[in-house]
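Sequence design from tokenized structure. All designs in this work follow the same two-part layout: the structure record, then the generated sequence. An example of the structure record is given first.
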């Protein structure tokens, strides 16, 4: 019995990004980045994962910065906490959708520690995989633990752990991108392209790579309506049964452009492009929302996991879209 104590590992505190990248390049056999630690520490205690090296990035000044440029937009470093994002007046004024999503994560103490990038890089969740090592001693291993079965989808040929991060749908709706760096160089990935849909390896991230920042394009000055909604059993303290982010660019009463994203319903976030295309050129009324719902449900294949059935998830999505007009006007 492990008594939920941390396993042994080597601990490192780089003071510069280059030092961090060198470490990640050298520790490819088993290393993890520690920022807020609100997810990785419990996972280590439960023996859900094992790493020989834990690299703390909180001592790197560059990664704790929030910057804005009229041409490049908003840049949020990977050590910036959710509380820092919520309290930043520029973010709340220009990107209220992101503020709402950050407020939906956990509780105050967690938001004071957890980082935005850490939430994006949150490991996929499963009520079976996320049990303790003691619980797993009496059961065959699942795909995510290196076994040959999935307990979520009986007879499934892959891992169906859910993508559960609350801020992801908002970042997709904002067309955010990630800055990913390694000793080999730098690349950028849209947040919606960062997820693989495979619970065993949920992110498009190599072992020597680190996400160093989130980039959100500058506002084009248009008239955007935007809203965020999360449905869960116990409010923000629970992982979402479903979360929805919507941005509609208005031309008077008609929708000129649309961004609709969901998370918490499947193995990766869903961008509802069919519903987006349908809403363009139409007024936001009961009929438009009703038709958009059908298109979203056609594009979405909810899973039964984390305390909710497929039937319940589909109805949660339906309920959120029914509230869509109020959501878009309640807080812009």
């Amino acid at each position: 019995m492990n008594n939920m104590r941390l396993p042994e590992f080597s601990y490192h505190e780089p003071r510069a990004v280059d030092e961090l990248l060198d470490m990640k390049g050298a520790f490819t056999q088993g290393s993890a980045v520690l920022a807020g630690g609100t997810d990785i520490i419990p996972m280590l205690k439960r023996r859900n994962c094992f790493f020989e090296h834990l690299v703390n990035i909180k001592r790197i000044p560059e990664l704790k910065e929030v910057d804005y440029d009229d041409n490049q937009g908003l840049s949020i470093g990977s050590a910036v906490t959710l509380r820092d994002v919520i309290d930043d007046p520029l973010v709340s004024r220009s990107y209220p959708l992101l503020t709402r999503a950050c407020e939906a994560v956990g509780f105050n103490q967690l938001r004071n520690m957890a980082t935005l990038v850490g939430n994006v890089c949150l490991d996929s969740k499963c009520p079976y995989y996320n049990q303790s090592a003691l619980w797993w001693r009496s059961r065959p291993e699942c795909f995510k633990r290196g076994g040959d079965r999935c307990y979520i989808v009986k007879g499934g040929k892959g891992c169906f752990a859910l993508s559960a991060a609350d801020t992801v749908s908002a970042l997709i709706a904002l067309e955010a991108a990630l800055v990913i760096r390694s000793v080999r160089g730098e690349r950028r990935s849209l947040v919606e392209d960062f997820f693989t849909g495979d619970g065993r390896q949920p992110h498009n991230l190599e072992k020597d790579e680190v996400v160093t920042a989130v980039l959100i394009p500058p506002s084009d000055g248009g008239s955007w309506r935007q809203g965020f909604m999360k449905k869960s059993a116990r409010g923000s303290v629970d992982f979402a049964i479903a979360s929805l982010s919507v941005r509609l660019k208005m031309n008077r009463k008609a929708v000129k452009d649309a961004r609709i994203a969901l998370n918490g319903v499947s193995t990766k976030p869903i961008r509802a492009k069919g519903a987006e295309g349908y809403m363009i050129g139409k007024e936001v009324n009961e009929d438009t929302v009703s038709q958009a719902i059908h298109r979203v449900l056609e594009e979405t294949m909810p899973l039964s996991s984390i305390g909710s059935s497929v039937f319940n998830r589909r109805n949660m999505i339906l309920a959120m879209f029914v509230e869509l007009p109020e959501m878009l006007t309640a807080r812009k």
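The longest strand covers residues 242-251. We note this feature because it recurs in several other targets discussed in the main text.
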